[in-house]
Amino acid sequence: MRKIKEILLENPADFKRKLLSWAQQFDELVCLDSNPEFNRVNQLYSSFDFILAAEALTAIKTDFQNAFDKLEEYKNTTNDWIFGYLTYDLKNDVEDVTSTNPDCVLFPDLYFFQPKKLFFINKNKLEMHYLHFVADEMEEDVNAILNVQASSESVKSNHPKIQARLSKQVYIEKVKQMLHHIQMGDIYEANFCQEFYAEDVSINPLQTFEKLNDISSPPFAAFVKLEEHFLLSASPERYLKKEGTKIISQPIKGTARRSQNKEEDLKLAIALQTEEKERSENIMITDLVRNDLSRTATRGSVKVEELCGLYSFKQVHQLISTVVSEVAETTSIVDVLKTTFPMGSMTGAPKVSAMKIIEELEETKRGLYSGAVGYISPQGNADFNVVIRSILYNRQTDYLSFSVGSAITTKSIPENEYEECLLKAKAIMEVLNK
After folding, report:
1. Which residues make beta-bridge pairs with 137?
2. CA distances (Å), origin 369, targets 95, 144, 319, 343
3. Is 219 left (phi over 0), alpha (psi -120 to 50) or beta?
4. Phi, psi of 108 (to 5 degrees)
5. pLDDT at 152 over 90
């Protein structure tokens, strides 16, 4: 179905930038960058350093109703590589919950496409996978990519006026309400998020993504262009990977700032790894992920490979756990997605109660934020990130949005949770103000 061409690259980093710039001509584009030179979190389970999928032959775009069944049908019909995203509001397809909050970014609930042109980079090796009827364009495309000049799109980014959807005072009051739910026994933990936004914004999505990726260099970065909708993601978190019959999930809970002073930075890292509140957040969500994976796992196969592992990124230290399971060969990746979505790190425990309380206290729909971006291969393997540390941009309405959140537990201090949100927003704020 696809013709494959292999090329050795003299300068992979330079080729990646040129490739992403060249691909801006297409209406459908997904780029996934693991930034391997900066990260060890995904090395054990990394399949590719960099992937770019462009130009749809077929696509599925739908709302949440029966979305996972439609995705399964689309996957089976194409029997090919498909790339796309799941928004947070697909929760309404799998649980008895609803969403009535306003949505200003207006991403479709689910969008996947079958690319005509696929590029995989591992170290210095490029593989091009083109559908046969466009395979004669391979040579021409490589030459065009190599001759790409520095990005010079006509649209220049202005400095958007970023507004907080919630004032600090309102945010603190809402966290207190969530703490009341915890004290009443409705939930043990919930991820509470707030939106920052700008209207009448004109940005250069590619240049903005490049700045964000350079400043953060995360293991699950993503650039998504689907018509007039853009996702610029510096995600550090894997949601779910399927590798044969093995399922891997790597929830993040626990955050601390970095310091340029090496001694202070080490102290911050050690304090994070030993801090009771941060560890308890991670352990609760790890237990939730174990429970979710058990719904499709073969008996006795769910295991925690690493609990509260300390990983350091350019902007923050994080605690990451790795939970794995085995599934039957007949189990579809869509079934695993459907029984684990939305991911525990972005909801809470118990999950359904947490989602209902989140919906009640948050003031906007999350949309693609805290959803997932990734791919499904012809063999049914897959890899999806968690959409956090990300900018959502609707070029048609000139609306820009990014959200940040933190886990609220019985030990939460509202003012400290607010400061954690600002820490997570720091890299995005810096990029948009450059």
Report:
1. none
2. 19, 34, 21, 12
3. alpha
4. -55, 150
5. no
Distance of CA 367 to the CA centre of its chain: 12
pLDDT for residue 240 is more than 90: yes
Q: Cα–Cα distance between 33 and 53 in angstroms, integer?
A: 12
pLDDT digit string, tens, across residues 339-373: 999 999 999 999 999 999 999 999 999 999 999 99
Element (H, E) at 290: helix 276-294
- Tens-digit pLDDT profile for residues 397-416: 999 999 999 999 999 999 99
State pTM to two decimals. Answer: 0.95
Contact 395, 200 (CB under 8 A): no
> For residue range 60-97, what is the model confidence (pLDDT) as tens digits?
999 999 999 999 999 999 999 999 999 999 999 999 99
User: CA 265, CA 267: separation in Å to the nearest integer?
Assistant: 5
DSSP tag of 258: -
285 phi, psi to nearest 5 deg: -75, -35
For residue 154, pLDDT beyond 80: no
Encoded tokens for 44: 């054990």
- Quick one: pLDDT at residue 1? 85
| Amino acid 159: pLDDT | 77
Sign, Cα dihedral of 349, 353, 357, 363: positive
Residue at token pair 């966290």: 175
CA 317, 318, 322 angle in degrees (round to 5)?
145
Is the model's pLDDT at 45 over the cut of 60? yes
Region 296-300: mean pLDDT is 98
- At 123, give phi and psi (nearest 5°): 55, -115
Do 95 and 67 meet the contact criterion of CB atoms below 8 Å apart? Answer: no
Tens digits of residue pLDDT in 100-129 = 999 999 999 999 999 999 999 999 999 999
Query: Where do runs of H (alpha helix) occur along 80-167?
Result: 91-94, 138-146
Q: What is the dihedral of CA 384, 278, 293, 78, to 10 degrees?
A: -10
Query: Burial letters for 153-185: b for 16+ Cβ neighbours within 10 Å, e otherwise?
Result: eeeebeebebeebbeeeebeebbeebbebbeee
2-146+155-241+331-433 is a CATH 3.60.120.10 domain? yes
- What is the 8-class DSSP label of residue 396? T
Rg (CA), the chain: 21
For the annotated catalytic residues, the residue numbers are 237, 253
Query: Collapsing DSSP states into helix, strand and coil, what is residue 171?
Result: helix
Q: E strand or H helix at 428, and its extent?
A: helix 414-433
pLDDT at 161 over 60: yes
